[in-house]
Structure formats: C-alpha cells, structure tokens
Design goal:
The structure is a single chain. By secondary structure, this protein is of the alpha+beta class. It contains twelve helices and four strands. The protein has helices spanning about 5-20, 20-60, 70-85, 95-105, 110-115, 135-145, 155-200, 200-210, 215-250, 250-255, 265-295, 300-305; strands at about 60-65, 85-95, 125-130, 150-155. The protein has a four-stranded antiparallel β-sheet, sandwiched between helices. Helix 1 (about 5-20) packs across helix 2 (about 20-60).
C-alpha cells in the first residue's frame, strides 16, 4: 500500500465518522457509559485501598527493650530490627516520652497521683516497627522475638489477618468488576459497529467487487474505531472527574467526620486517560475488525442481491 493510498484511507476514516455521525455518536455514548462505570469503580477501590494502607500503617509492632540495656545496645537494636527484613520503618520511643503521653491521657488528679507516688517510670524503652507486607506478619514477629535485648512484643495479629483478607477480597472484586465491564463494553460496541457496517454493506461489496483488498477495506473502519475510542476516552475522563469532585463535595462533611481524606483525582487523571483511550481503541478497532469479517468474506455478493 502506497503512502498516497494510506493517506486517502485515513481521510476516508475521518470522513465516514462524520458522514455516519449518528451511529458514531451512538458508539461513543455506549463506550462512554462503560468507561465512566469503570473509572468510577476504580476511584472507589483506590480510595478503599488508600484507607486500608493508612490502617496498616497504624497496625505497628511494639518491640519493648529489656531493662539494663545500654544506649549502645539500644542503637544496635535498630540496625538488627531493620536487618530482619519486611520492615518499612522503625521509630525509637524513649520511656520518658511514652510515659508523658500516657499521663496526658489520664485525668489531672490521676496523673498527679502517679507522679507523686514514685519518680520511677514504669514503662520500658521501645521501638515502634511498621512492616512492609502484612502477609509476612507472623514470620516477622517471630524473627523480632529472637533478637537480643527484646523483653516483650505487642502486636495485633487478628487485625493484620483481617486487613490482608479485606485487601485480597477488594482486589478480586475490583478485577472482576472491571473485567466484566470491559467485556460488556467490547460486546456492546461490537454490536453498535455491526449496525454501522451493515448499513454500509453495499459500499463494502462494491469495493470488494472492483478488487479492493481486505486491508484496503478495513483501514477506514479501523481509523473510525481509533477516533471513537480516543473521543470516548477523553470525554469519559472529564465525566468521571466531574462526578468524583461532585461526590467529594456532597460527602465532604461525612468524610471529615470519619477522619478520612479522599484522594486527589489529578494524581490519577493521566494514567486513567491512557487506560481509557487504550480501552476505547481496543474496543473500537476490535469491534470493527470482528464485525467486518463476515462482510469481507462475501466478495461482493451484496451487489447481486440489490
């Protein structure tokens, strides 16, 4: 295929999109509906995942230092804890700081009583340890227990297990929902394009009768599919963005009362645009190619029926 032929076919794709604009609008609307659902579901799951991540950060392991441990040994413990692996961060909590925080939670009379009966601090030094992967929570705890100068360890195993189960469940649900929506969008856009191709079956038959190759006939439809996909992706992103900002505004008080913070859509706009455009192009081009197969095999038989 020469460069001039390719240029002509691409122009034909644009011209056909405009000429059959009602069917093009129908295809765009159908694809937009699926993309908006996919985008909305994705933002919901991303916010849930962000919430789980914050809860995981609070699910720390407290490693209490044995009495009599020297400052040098305490400093070495930080190195040994990090060497265990699966450790995101460590924070040393001096017993003085921990005791001051404990007193701050008490009533004034109660706090005064505890400070008067003894000047000794009844709490040990500790390390606040945040793990990277909760799936390895139990193994990490066992390794920490085996370190030198460790008195006791406080951890919430049940919460860690529940968070892992919730995250896995949400991941499966998200994959299933997005996959189903993608399949539905491909099916609907294929049937929409089928109507477009059917309405132009005579044009296809004439082109085949005068010797046009399958590639020559297909390319304008492929170009149409790309145009529809890009247009649907861009418009869908704007709709999802608007709906997301509207939802945040409407539920702002509820979100703040729960101590939550919604994700900024702008951080995900560009990746989502790329995904939307990719889904749109795959759906548009795929639907065109699948639908045209039966007409390309007729080799101009439509003319004989006219």
């Amino acid at each position: 295929m020469t460069g001039s032929s390719l240029k002509y076919l691409i122009k034909e794709g644009f011209r056909n999109t405009w000429t059959n604009r009602m069917m093009s609008i129908a295809s765009i609307c159908v694809l937009m509906s699926c993309l908006v659902l996919i985008g909305s579901a994705s933002m919901i799951f991303l916010n849930i995942d962000s919430l789980l991540s914050r809860i995981e950060d609070e699910n720390v392991i407290m490693v209490y230092v044995a009495d009599g441990t020297t400052d040098e040994e305490i400093a070495q413990m930080d190195v040994n804890i990090k060497a265990v692996g699966n450790i995101e961060k460590t924070e040393f909590v001096p017993k003085e700081t921990a005791w001051a925080e404990q007193l701050a939670t008490m009533e004034e009379a109660q706090a005064e009583f505890f400070t008067q009966i003894s000047s000794d601090i009844p709490l040990p030094d500790a390390y606040k340890v945040t793990v990277t992967n909760l799936d390895q929570f139990d193994q990490t705890v066992e390794k920490l227990k085996a370190l030198d100068h460790v008195d006791t360890i406080r951890e919430n195993k049940n919460l860690a297990q529940k968070l892992v189960a919730i995250r896995q469940g949400i991941s499966v649900i998200a994959i299933v929902i997005i996959s189903v929506l993608f399949i539905i969008s491909l099916f609907i856009i294929s049937n929409t394009i089928k109507l477009t191709v059917y309405s132009r079956r005579l044009e296809i038959s004439i082109m085949k009768s005068v010797g046009a190759t399958n590639s020559f006939v297909r390319l304008p439809f492929v170009v149409e599919g790309i145009i529809l996909g890009i247009t649907s992706g861009v418009i869908s992103l704007g709709l999802v963005w608007g709906l997301y900002e509207l939802a945040i505004k409407e539920f702002a008080e509820l979100i703040e009362s729960l101590g939550l913070k919604a994700l900024a859509f702008a951080d995900y706009a560009l990746p989502m645009l790329g995904i939307f455009v990719a889904i749109g192009i795959v759906s548009g081009v795929g639907g065109s190619l699948i639908t045209m197969r039966k007409y390309l095999n007729k080799e101009g038989s439509e003319i004989s029926g006219v």
